[in-house]
Design a protein that fits this description.
This protein has a single domain (about 30-355), classed as TolB, C-terminal domain (Neuraminidase), CATH 2.120.10.30. About 0% of the residues lie in helices and about 45% in strands. It has strands spanning about 30-35, 40-45, 45-50, 50-60, 65-70, 75-80, 90-95, 100-105, 110-115, 120-125, 125-130, 140-145, 155-160, 165-170, 185-190, 200, 205-210, 220-225, 235-240, 270, 275-285, 290-300, 305-310, 315-325, 330-335, 340-345, 350-355. About 50% of the residues are buried.
């Protein structure tokens, strides 16, 4: 594994966000790389803009890869280690400072968590399972609702859409080959019971994190790029993905020309080899210094980005700056029902809570 690769969530069979064995052209709709706002210490060893305060919310969950809040406001955390030994798990944290409780054990690379009603969805290697009937200690029942072909690629984040479907990202099983399965390097969707699995968008090397813009049907997706291009390696992408799109992997990686004819443009170009991962959409919860923005974790760069979102007609442009530093390997991010941002450090097992300072 190269040092710029992210253990959880790669397009490889066991590599996680960047490739092991096993997607840019600057354009009007691509990101304008803005300078970072003035930052300083905001607590808990983190640095960020004034007006924010950080604290440690929980500890003890190394390799935290995905978050979800349940209807009671409890934080659920899935862990995904660098090598899949079947020892990954799903935890619940009931309040700040509480000991994380392991609820589901023996999971294989769970990279997506989603609460829909009183049901927990868990995406893991080759499958999606649902869990229901949680009594505070265990679930009463579990059902495998989606089974994917062997070798399809990493099964990543997911989100429930305004169309009533669950949308899920699946990586390519390789860095730059043409995948054999139609489900590889794709965004797929299915009904909450697992029926009607379909491919919605193709040619995306590694669609990792998912978030809908609140109140709209715009699906924002973080994308890992190819790693084999040397000096031509593009930055990772933040993009809006729509049904029927073809993103051109492996031939197109944002370089333009014939290979990229008809390929959509990214909202923002992020750092190269960044192992971009989780995403949340803020619309004022964190104050004016954050504003309306996508908050994106970059595992390999040890920072959380702010991508200011500007809507123009049916599309967006993004202005990129650094929001938080001081986290070794951020992966999971989520906005909680308390309007705070939660960020997990994959390396240390610390979950941070970052909130607007009360005026």
């Amino acid at each position: 594994m190269r040092t710029d690769e992210l253990p959880p969530g790669s397009p490889s069979a066991r590599g996680r966000f960047r490739v092991t064995t096993l997607v840019v052209t600057l354009f009007l709709l691509a990101a304008a790389c803005g300078s970072s706002p003035s930052t300083g210490a905001i607590g808990a060893g983190l640095r960020g803009p004034s007006g924010l305060h950080a604290e440690v919310y929980a500890r003890g969950m190394k390799q935290a890869a995905s978050f979800a809040f349940d209807p009671q406001g409890r934080l659920w955390v899935a862990t995904a280690a660098a090598n899949d030994t079947g020892a990954d798990a799903v935890y619940v944290v009931t309040k700040a400072g509480a000991t994380a409780k392991k609820v589901i054990a023996g999971v294989h690379t769970p990279l997506g968590l989603l609460w829909h009603g009183d049901t927990l969805f868990v995406s893991s290697a080759g499958r999606v399972d649902t869990y229901s009937g949680f009594d505070g200690t265990a679930f009463a029942s579990t059902t495998r609702i989606v089974s994917l072909p062997d070798g399809v690629g990493e099964v990543n984040g997911m989100v429930f859409g305004p169309d009533g479907r669950v949308h899920l990202g699946i990586s390519s099983p390789c860095d730059h080959c043409t995948p054999a399965s139609p489900y590889s390097a794709a965004v797929v969707s299915f009904l909450p019971d697992g029926h009607d699995l379909r491919v919605d968008a193709t040619g995306i090397r590694a669609p990792i994190g998912f978030a809908y813009y609140p109140g709209r049907s715009d699906l924002f997706v973080t994308m890992n790029q190819r790693d084999d291009l040397g000096a031509k390696t593009p930055g990772d992408w933040l993009a809006v993905v729509a049904d029927g799109q073809r993103w051109g992997f492996p031939a197109c990686y944002g370089q333009g020309g014939a290979a990229c004819v008809g390929v959509p443009k990214a909202v923002a170009t992020l750092d190269p080899h960044a192992a971009v991962s989780g995403i949340a959409i803020a619309t004022g919860q964190l104050g004016s210094r954050v504003g309306t923005a996508a908050i994106v974790a970059e595992w390999a760069k040890g920072k959380v980005l702010r991508v200011g979102l500007h809507r123009h007609g049916a599309g967006y442009t993004g202005t990129v700056s650094t929001l938080l530093t001081g986290i070794s390997n951020p992966v999971a991010v989520a906005l909680g029902p308390d309007r705070a941002l939660y960020v997990g450090d994959w390396s240390s097992g610390v979950v941070y809570r970052v909130a607007r300072v009360a005026s």
